[in-house]
Amino acid sequence: MPEREPTLMSGIPELVLLRLLAEREMYGYDIARALKLLSDEALSLGEGVLYPALHALEARGLLRSRPRQVEGRTRIYYQATPKGCRRLERLTANWRRMSDGVERILGARHD
Amino acid sequence: MPEREPTLMSGIPELVLLRLLAEREMYGYDIARALKLLSDEALSLGEGVLYPALHALEARGLLRSRPRQVEGRTRIYYQATPKGCRRLERLTANWRRMSDGVERILGARHD
DNA sequence: TCTCATACCTTGGCGCGCGAGGTATAGTCC
DNA sequence: GGACTATACCTCGCGCGCCAAGGTATGAGA
Can you tell me the mean pLDDT for B32-51? Predict the structure, then answer.
């Protein structure tokens, strides 16, 4: 299975989720709050993006989850696997490459 | 018609095309070469992206085209309209916002 | 009891990037 | 003349993945 690269762009959810979860365990609702805060609203993933993304990443072995009971509520904590961390490195490199490319085109005079 | 914003990401083709064509007239084949060169291969739009995108942008009134005969070949030159330029400004601002958001998340320690 | 915050989830639509494939002319090399 | 490359345009269909909308359930405070 060739593990297709995400196209040109989009794949931001995958990138940022792996980034957050490579550092510490978090649960869905928490992630949503953190993203909004950290990115100054720019990267708020709706729940219709967030949860399916988490499930898909787990199914691909990039995340691992465990449920925890906290104050009578069930939370599902996710965390990046080693495979997920390697994937994160690749995606980060892709992002930089692509982002630099856009900046070069936006920034320069081309006449 | 609310003229929907492109989602989270993706819309890079629209952004870079408008950027290039806001400055000077170019034709398809030329654009493809320029993008590869300027972005160091990172942003090479295949023809299956490029031409449909140009047509769509023209249909929306963001580009204007005129055919020219050069050395026995027909080239179709495109150029951004004023409306296209205004759109470019909006998209550029969106890109910065979103790009900064990603950088903030990639760059920081979150523990 | 009502509402708000917390916490999870699915479904359907559809935009759009992309690979693959198609047409045609001009020039070059043998 | 035939083959090949570069130039120059185009379309079609697949499918990924974003997103809005809607659904369930618990705990806390008014």
Answer: 89
- In which region does residue A24 sit, left (phi positive, over 0), alpha (psi from -120 to 50) or beta (all else)? beta
Question: Nearest by CB to B105, which of A9, A38, A101?
Answer: A38
For A39, which of B11, B42, B105 is closest by C-beta distance? B105
| B42: nearest CA partner in chain A | A98
Question: pLDDT tens for residues A15-67?
Answer: 999 999 999 999 999 999 999 888 888 888 899 999 999 999 999 999 999 99
Distance CA B22, CA B103 (A): 27
Looking at CA atoms only, how far is residue A73 from chain B in angstroms? 23
Residue A88 has pLDDT above 50, yes or no: yes
With distances taken from each CA to the C1' atom of nucleotide C24, the closest residue turns out to be B73
pTM comes to 0.88
Give the E-state strand segments of chain A in sequence order. 26-27, 63-70, 73-80
**Given this model, what pLDDT does residue B1 score?**
43
Cβ within 8 Å of A, B 52-91:
none
